[in-house]
Amino acid sequence: MLIHHESDGSGPPVLLLHSGVADLRMWDPQWPELIAAHQVVRVDLRGFGKTLATAGTYRDADDVREVLDSLGISRTAMVGSSYGGRVAMEFAAAYPDRVTQLILLCPVYQGLPPTAALKDFAAAVAAFLEAGQLDAAVDLNVQTWLGPEADDPTRELVRKMQANSLRLKLVHPDGGPETSEIDAATIDIPALVVSGARDMDYFLAVAQHLAQVMPKARQVELAWAGHLPSLERPGEITQLLLEALL
């Protein structure tokens, strides 16, 4: 299955992977400046944006590989936000020779047990969806994952992206990606792990853990950021990416 994607620009390739409450539109603020210096690819993973959800299980990393193959890209840097960070690590673990570096913005990682705050959030979202209260589930996601720096248009965009994804996934509620464990210690690739001081405690612990166990990782913590810094202060993250990309 070839998932929806966009590609533009020229230069060293960069792949952008969206968070679990967004789709490829989350990278709109970074897109113009990145494509001025790089060949940039962004995708809608299954069940997000313009890519339909499917029945059964699949591997997001293999969908990404198919896109890169279709574009003739053998090696690329990967930038992943939240869930997109997990996909980037999955791809790097499966295809290490195809990744030049990783930039992980508040990444998801299943190698640590969930905190009480994360459990409470997941239970609340599940209860809303079970009751058919889609809008309430969307609102809780927006309130939880966007930090105080995000403006109203950004909050509305995230609300639209998340609502679209939840509706797509309701078509195939039993479908979803495989969730095999990743041993971060085996990802021997230059990596920048970005965390937000205003993010949920679980993701602060994840960033610290990854920076400690990944052989070539370093961590940057942003005092102002919540879980989605590229949407909260897009200009600062654009500059961070341009400076960090090799």
TrEMBL record:
AB hydrolase-1 domain mapped to chain residues: 12-233
Source domain of life: Bacteria
Gene3D superfamilies registered for this protein in UniProt = alpha/beta hydrolase
- Quote the Pfam families the UniProt record gives: Abhydrolase_1 (PF00561)
Name of the protein described by the UniProt record: 3-oxoadipate enol-lactonase
Give the source species.
Answer: Fodinicola feengrottensis
Q: What is the lineage of its organism?
A: Bacteria, Bacillati, Actinomycetota, Actinomycetes, Mycobacteriales
What gene does the UniProt entry assign to this protein? pcaD_2
